[in-house]
């Protein structure tokens, strides 16, 4: 078959003052192909995606769809040409339903009214065709991260996309969900949809992509077939150096209990228990990992520990003090550091300067506060330290947080939390959506903090990260801790089966206390 | 970078005003009125000393009203109830001031304190409703404006009204006059001292000084205190603010109460400087103007001052239009157009600034990574 490529990029070049973000990028994607795009942050992937999606115009080069040169001046043009994009940070209106979110911008009009019933029907059909099940009438704010992603994909399919671009789609999913996603993507491929996805997880790229294009420093390094390379080789192509591993070395666990949860129970607004009988301890120098399929109570656990959600029964003790009824601020002042799951939602003041972002969460403590006043000088100084020590790449500390790339934003958050001299660190998906370089830096910092005696509670969807960093691993399922595993012996596949509740008969499982 | 950002910020309101003048000229010409004559006469009349003093006197209540709205806006809280808050505050403060006679250095602060307390109390109601029952403050403050009108009328008629003497029938219900010590001296002497000739009948109200102090206080509170940081964080990203330890309910209460206290001062300039009592002639609508002033001024104390001045200037200079047979409603249109276009202009400026900054940061990140292209490792 001599069909023209579904999309062909020829010599795409995009310069920003002083920077060449994309330098003569050339590659093509065949129709109904799953094409992975890998590269470090700053390699030019985002810029390239923005160019394909019409958000930015290339300075040189051309884009051909089905062999015909196109001129994409805006996402509207791209959508009309059948290109759809699922962003890494979801863009849903919280107070709209799934259905309303999907039709937003392409409302089904019948006469003067909205044909919501028809749209609902179509969404259900799309959902069952591709296995993307989300109840159309749920409010977006009630959705878990994984479900939000499904809505985003549905939204794009609803607009009739034939070329689907996904920006790090698996960053937030557990293996079972990842498998489901790729099953869906293969289903899309069978229907003739072309899929381009960005990923940092090389194993899944090799398992699922038909073709892989590697970008580095704004250039296409190579395009390979997965069969021809190993993950290690791919990583070297990407970064030009060794791929870091999350493994911790010798145990630094002490017998000092920093965090103690004693039969903790949390109920949702409608009285349903979302956490039931949760008991565990985190010691000084210990990383306790919580594994689980998203939506099994991890968010509620974090919120309960942060004082954002009331504990209905049981007791939480931090550093010997009963903090069960404490508000958030005294908890933070007592040394609870927090790396939130969604850095844009909970971790940053995007339009505010970096030094104000470094204060966030610690604004009531030195060096940020002097009696009732902000200590701007102290904050700027601390920010300079964070920037230097945690390798945050920024032109200065007065820059707004939105200007930084995801990896640099995350390093800023990790840095500010670490430098607050915490007793306990709650790290939710600390390396979600950042490149391997930044990921290695974050892992290194977590290990370093653990050596220094920090107690860490790690909630992650990256099983390799959980197994590699944790000293103790718990599995959470439907709001309960169902297994305690030894990270030294457990494999990701075993862990995955515990997470889905299928692993009860597996060894090695320590008896629950 | 900083200068460029400042110029961009200033460019927004300037272009909005230019656009409004152009659009209003078109409207005037289309309706058969001479646009140039209109604007020229407004300009000449507005710049007379007597006009400028009157503009300053008008701008002070606009300014305070704008600040009261702005502090709420800073955390996405919409206090539409400044109108009711200041009118009720002015009435009760006037009655309290008339009932007590103290030396001026106590009397005037006392009257102001009463006004602030009443404004704060009235603003506490929607705050409590929001925190306890989730009632949106826009709805409750609008309703409380109407209630405040009724309550003031009742209080004035039943308790605070000065009984008419002898056979005179009082057509305008009013409170008793404030004692001499409750009357704030004008700043005319100060103006004369700096060589400004004051036309007969013009008074620059002394409350201007208080307004300036409140503006400075507002700036320090919002940008320099830890409380202000929490407030701004709540406005920028409420989820992140809560996770950082801000108690959102307490924040709503505090900000509404402060907003109401500032609102309570809105009527003080006219009352202490001119009326010396509360009457049913007391100026109304300032609470609503404040919303526009805050919007125009981007919730910044200097911006709000400029916004208050512009609104006051337009109000005053519109008076000349009647003499020229031009409908003064054109000024209302102009105020509306300025507001609508300034919102658009600010958004445009925000995006330009954001794009520039992102570009600079990307540049820095790449530069720091050193010479980017490395030799590909053979697969």
Describe this structure in words.
The complex is a heterodimer of chains A (513) and B (379). With 513 residues, chain A is of the alpha/beta class. Chain A is 32% helix and 25% strand. In chain A, the strands form 6 sheets. Chain A has a 6-stranded mixed sheet, with helices on both faces. In chain A, strands 18-21-22-15-23-24 form a 6-stranded mixed sheet, sandwiched between helices. Chain A is globular. With 379 residues, chain B is mainly α. Helices cover 73% and strands 0% of the residues of chain B. In chain B, helix 3 runs parallel beside helix 8 (207-224) and helix 4 crosses helix 13 (286-296). The two termini of chain B are 45 Å apart. Residues 370-379 of chain B have low confidence and may be disordered. At the A-B interface, strand 12, helix 8, helix 10, helix 11 and strand 20 of A face helix 9, helix 10 and helix 16 of B.
Taken as a percent bin, the fraction of beta residues of chain A is: 25-35%
Mean pLDDT of chain A: 85
Distance between the termini of chain A: 62 Å
Task: Report the radius of gyration of chain A as a whole number of Å.
Answer: 23 Å
Radius of gyration of chain B: 24 Å
* Oligomer state of the chains in this structure: heterodimer
Secondary-structure-derived class of chain B: mainly alpha
Largest interface by Cβ-Cβ < 8 Å: A-B, 62 and 40 residues
How are the strands of the largest sheet of chain A arranged?
6-9-10-3-11-12
As residue ranges, the low-confidence spans of chain A are 505-513
Instruction: Report the mean per-residue pLDDT of chain B as an integer.
Output: 89
Task: Summarize the main sheet of chain A.
Answer: 6 strands, mixed
Number of helical segments with 4 or more residues of chain B: 16
Structural class of chain A: alpha/beta
Secondary structure: helix percent of chain B: over 70%
Q: How much of the sequence of chain B is in beta strands?
A: under 5%
- What is the rounded distance between the termini of chain B? 45 Å
